[in-house]
Write a structure and sequence with these properties.
Elements: E1 8-11, E2 17-26, E3 30-37, E4 40-47, H1 54-66, H2 71-74, E5 82-86, E6 89-97, H3 108-112, H4 121-140, E7 143-144, E8 153-155, E9 162-164, E10 171-172, H5 189-192, H6 200-216, H7 224-227, H8 234-243, H9 265-272, H10 276-286, H11 288-291, H12 299-311, E11 313-315, E12 322-324, E13 332-333, E14 340-341, E15 346-350, E16 355-359, E17 365-367, H13 368-371, E18 382-388, E19 396-400, E20 406-410, E21 415-418, E22 423-425, E23 430-435, E24 438-443
Helix pairs in contact: 4-6, 4-12
The structure holds zinc ion.
Length: 444
Amino acid sequence: MSLKLGDVVRARVSGNELTVKKKLGEGTQGVAYLVEAPDGQEVVKWYFRTQATADQREAIERLVNRGKPRGGGGERFVWPKDIVTSSGDTATFGYLMPVIDTSRFVELNAIQAKRHPQPNIPELCRISYNIADSFSDLHLSGYCYRDISLGNLLFDPRTGEVLICDNDNVGIDRQSESAILGTPEFMAPEVIRGEETPSTITDQHSLAVLLFNLWMWHHPFHGIKEYQIRSWDIPAKTKIYGTEPVFIFDPEDASNRLPDEPGYITALKRWKICPPSLKKAFTTSFTRGLREPGSRVTEGNWKAIFSSLHDNRLKCGGCGAINLWSEGIHMMQCWNCDEGIAIPMRIVINNGMTRSALLVDEGRNVFVRHVRPTEEQRSKEPIGEIVRNPNDPSMLGLRNLTELPWIVSFGDDVQKEVPPGRSAPLNRSMQLNLGSGASASIEH
Ligand SMILES: [Zn+2]
């Protein structure tokens, strides 16, 4: 039974009485209501009786007891806070969660329908980073999400903040049973084919589809094969997503290219201006990653890609639009006005394991993550800042923001110390030892 306005339900752990104020929406599993709790308004998701199984209740209890994923990424999950029951209807139950500010947080389809402005490119990088960071923290906490889809993602297009809702299908990776397998468009091919159940590895496929949708506004397998299907039924979806998935931009398999039709133009336009590092990750996800789940792009890979793109944004001198530089771009044309954009020289940081490049521009920072990508907690700490030489404003230098000296040389055997607070001049012959086995040089 659904609840009526004015009904009183009870939260199990807190014992609080909650008065139903308003119906907010209805999904496939239940109805969401705004309720008045002693310390303000909250939301109750109330299950349909058919969905209110003992397994579902046990799953929600486990989420309430274990709590949301740890870390900053965990804070973005709109996590179940308590089980809710009604003395008038013991055949079902619900759970309590915080209210979402829907004036700020929107779904992608609200943006595609032009009800909200599009996020700018730096914010799109931030949204994407935050999504990957959240699923990284979820997986590190031993959970798998199992139903990653656009319908569960809300973001603030102006700030890039993200919320992930509908967490009632989250489970313990490779332990708990799942009532649902996911949303077909986002499900990994092996789950569609019935060979595997949802796990962190299949979440990685869903995450790649989600990110592709965010950037391309299109599904990675919706090409000529989907276009030619007359009846969009279960066998059709099984074919497109499960038994014959082919990436629309697969460099080797051209069997599922975009048809020359108006509904497919946006994807082509957006792909053309997609930075190479991102194209490469999508291509890996939807070619090798389909056949070899172990080689899927990880949450950490996505985080590195989006933070690097965010670092390396460039403003077009002609129209002011923000463009994204990534390694592999040697000539740059503004995506908005086609004008050529000069690419500044780059600081290339090598730590023996990873290599990252940062455009040289006054005010940009080198961060801990450039030097030691594994130091998650301190990754956003700046260790260096690009500054202008006060005595020669045509010269830029990298100021040492650490507490230890760096060692610099300029193409000869002469080594000089760069003490904390001082700067190393950034010129083509510079070789900078940043400590911890990391070095920096200039690429032009
Ligand atoms: Zn431009």
